Amino acid sequence: MTGAAFSYALLAALATALLVAAVTDWRSRTIANTLNLAIALAAPLWWLATDLPLSAIGWQLALAAGTFAVAALLFAAGQMGGGDVKLLTALALWFAPASFFQLFVLMAILGGGGSLAMALFNMQRDREARTADTLAMLATVLAIGCLTAMAIATATHGPLIPPAAIVFVANTMPNIWLIFAALLVLVVLLTWGLRRVMRRQKSRIEVPYGIAIAAAALWVIGTEMLATITA
Fold first, then answer.
1. CB-based burial, 112-129: b 16+ in 10 Å, e otherwise
2. Are 22 and 210 in contact (CB under 8 A)?
């Protein structure tokens, strides 16, 4: 097997493992330790296939250690599961620092959007406060839309706000203070709405964060890592 073919095979195996992680996390909110261990143990094969120098391998190990430290703090705060921590740490052994940073940011955005979507469906409605609940739900949908735009901008390396939209706003509201006032109202509405939705949860929800990790990793594999093989 040639070097390029071996690299493609490794990425295919990693992509398959990520899909398995996403499915199992969705079904049972767990990611098998054996799967995370297999991903970690296969990383040296990727280093060998891509002729990674010893200095770069050192950076990969340092990145994995730093990732574990940060993810462990999120686990202690109840924001991430143990399987998610192990999966993210294992993936840090595969991705170059710049690519892993994109993965981490994209994962955070996707995970945040997924958490809000699940919270919205898990919200306990109040018949005596339908108007407030409706406004809170609309604010949450708007927040999910903003996170979706951020995810697209991060994934495509494009602008968060299209230049045409900026020109339109500038022409429609030439007074800069009106723009700031509108942004302030938007922030207040989002903060109030999200707080209301979070406070009115029917039960505690377990967010399958492994799906966000897998989706972000698969995107970076397709846009970044495949390019290193074909280059």
1. bbbbbbebbeebeeeeee
2. yes
